[in-house]
Amino acid sequence: MIDWLSTYAAQSLLLAIALLALLESLAFVGILVPGVAVLASLSWLAGQQAQPLSSLLLAGFIGAVLGDWISFLLGRYCAPWIARRHTLKDHPQWLTEGERFFQRHGGSSIFLGRFVGPLRAVVPFIAGSCGMPTARFVAFNVLSAALWAPAYLLPGYWLGEQASELEMSWNSWIQLIALILFMAMLLHALHQQLEPGRWLSERMIGLGWFHAQRTGIQLFLGLCASSLIFLMVSRTQGWLQAFDQEFYTQLQIGISGVQQFMLLFTLLGDKIHLLGSTVLIVSLCLLFNYRRTALNLLIVMIGVTLLNIALKHLFEWQRPDIGVGLYETFSFPSGHSSGTAALLGSLAVLFALGRPPSQKRWIYWGFLPPILLTALSRVVLGVHWPLDVAAGILEGLILVTLLRWQYADQKLDAKPDPLLIASIAVLQAIFTLSYISLSFPEMQRFYGI
User: Fold this and answer.
1) DSSP state of 267
2) Which of 65, 82, 392, 411 could form a disulfide with 334 if both were Cys (CB 3.0 to 4.6 A apart)?
3) Is residue 84 helix, strand or coil?
4) 3-state helix, strand, coil in the chain (%, to 5)
């Protein structure tokens, strides 16, 4: 009986992988189905269960081939009827982008489109509606699926297979990096969907919500605020205390050689660096007659400082043993993390004003690593718990989001003077590098590195 159940579970897992691979490639359905993320999870589970790799790849291959083949047949025989459906009338860009891609790349668009999310579910349908020869389509379909299956399934399978053999210290770092990448991809997708004309943006406007841009800011503000409230309640009730201490302990394992690198980033959140950077940026904004920008930055930095002090005294949470010996202030939340998130987040907002959404995302991505590394450095150096730095980042992002809300109106969301942006970037870089080079030896002695 147990052997039968094990066999049934294994077969069900492979069937689910094949079905998801099919839906991921199926005409227009694949646009709405988060198949890749679920496939990665299922392949990880297959690796943990030591499922045969050949069966996993075969299931993904068959599902992908069938999905494209069904889409091709729908395009060949049902294109006029499908094009009149309400969903496609609401989203004509789905067909327009797919047709443009097919006309540009011809038959190879079947192969290339397989690896491009939104096009994967459209190009085979376009190929069928345009009368592409069946034999040629089948050749591209089979070849692309043979490469797509291992590319999308092998990483998750390998991680699942090796999970039990990895050391705990590496497990913690891998989980941390995976979580950061997942959150970044989620925010990237959300920001992309809030662009004018996108599915989520149109639905928000259709529901009578505010302008899509402002609604996106409200969503992000609500996400950050609710997450911070959850962390504060968790800290009070002790819900995540065991996780907090365990994760801190695991990050402390095998950190030799990493501490000096992390010290570079912890200096970004030092009070003197934050104060000097604020004075520098505010002075430049006043020099270029951007008084409102200067005032907003001052409000954000003063606000995050006062909020951090208030929360520290409200919770009075003790630091880890290393931190108790170095600091007299309380642990929750991290002032370095909140100050860096507020300063660099404000710069990201300023640099992204008036730019297209795609450029804004690149700017936000560019400012994200130093914020995260500064927060992580506080845990690696042993002076904060993981929840402290998470709450600190959320503090800063809440105030930065409120700042961005001030510019949500089109009249205020104008691109700043390029000379101002260049001046801030160059002078801030010079100031930061100078401060790090001068303070690094003293901080090495302070932290005992």
Assistant:
1) G
2) 392
3) coil
4) 80, 0, 20
- Residue 73 to residues 77, 130, 134, 444, Cα–Cα distance (Å): 6, 11, 10, 67
Q: Cα dist. 281→24, 51, 424, 433 in Å?
A: 47, 57, 6, 16
Q: What is the pLDDT of residue 354?
A: 84
Whole-number Cα distances in Å, 115 to 14, 92, 104, 159 = 21, 22, 16, 21
Query: Residue 88 has which token pair?
Result: 């496609």
339 vs 267: CA distance, rounded Å: 11
Say what the pTM is. 0.63
Please state, in angstroms and rounded to a whole number, the distance separating the CA atoms of residues 107 and 110. Answer: 6
Residue with tokens 């503090």: 395
Give phi and psi for 383, each to the nearest 5: -105, -5
Token digits of residue 85: 């459906």
pLDDT digits (tens, 9 = 90+) for 119-162: 666 777 777 777 678 887 788 888 888 888 888 788 778 777 66
* Amino acid identity for residue 433 in this structure: L
**Residue type (1 letter), 124:** P
d(CA 317, CA 388): 9
- Contact 34/49 with Cβ under 8 angstroms? no
DSSP 183-224: HHHHHHHHHHHTSTTSHHHHHHHHTT-S-HHHHHHHHHHHHH
**What parts of the chain have a pLDDT lower than 70?**
1-11, 27-37, 78-121, 131, 161-216, 253-257, 409-413
